[in-house]
Input
Amino acid sequence: MGKKSEEREYIAPISMTSLPKETDRSIFFGKIIGLNSKAFFDIDQLTKHMFIVGGPGTGKTIAGMVIAEECLLKNVAVVVFTPTEQWNSFGSKCESEKMLRLYEEFGLSEEDRKEFNHKEVVVSYDDLNIDVTSYIEENKINVFVLNELTENDYNEFVKNSLECMIYKNWATTDKLKVLLVFENAYKLSPSFGNKAALMLEKACREFRKYGIGILLITHSFSDFGPAVLGNVASEIWFKTSYDKDLDRITHRYGPEYRAAVVKLRTGECMIANVDYNYSKPWFIRIRPLYHKFQ
Output
């Protein structure tokens, strides 16, 4: 698609100077759509938590993995809670020809491929009281695979995990030290049981002062109530057809942003944080991964 067509389809940033800058505490997200500029984000904003929302197959998980990679490169501990096997290849370098073909577009080369310090923990019924804090390790990603658990046990495990973290004696800091990633985060909504939902609300309020960020990857904002939504500062939107989410975009940002989101291609997203771009969203194309993706 040509540049003129892109400019009609997407909304340019209000001011490049108002966007996140490249620093020693920035995430390299990808490229700003319509411009030949790299897209960055302040890693310490993640202490105020982030949503990644969109329909199936739009790129939500890849975006979450990009954030996890960038955190690991800055010695942040990453802990993932997932019902899938997609997060289990961080220990190997990218081998995907499809990914590697995109490297040049983002100023990358094959030398940028990376393997990360990674451990997979498959959780069963007997593991519901694991001390998750013992898996918080600098510059390492620990992945809890929860596909063997019933919905009730899933809820119980996440509740216990957040609870043990809440009552640990953390030092206060405004720097991101730990990132908790919840894939299919809708499983933490009240409709799946109040135990994890109530503990998530408390975690969103309490964790930011200890440098613990929460990344929620889900299909829809409607899965969560105001107690969570009001404590998450950053939003990444991939293409969606959920009317409630589109209405949220219209109400918060305007109909032109709603119209743009429904036209997004796979790997493209709208990002919003009131500290940037005069509180208006901007659009980026997510970079390819450094590690192997199955």
Summary: Residues 151-166 form the longest helix (16 residues). The CA atoms of residues 131 and 164 lie 7 Å apart. The two ends are 29 Å apart (CA to CA).
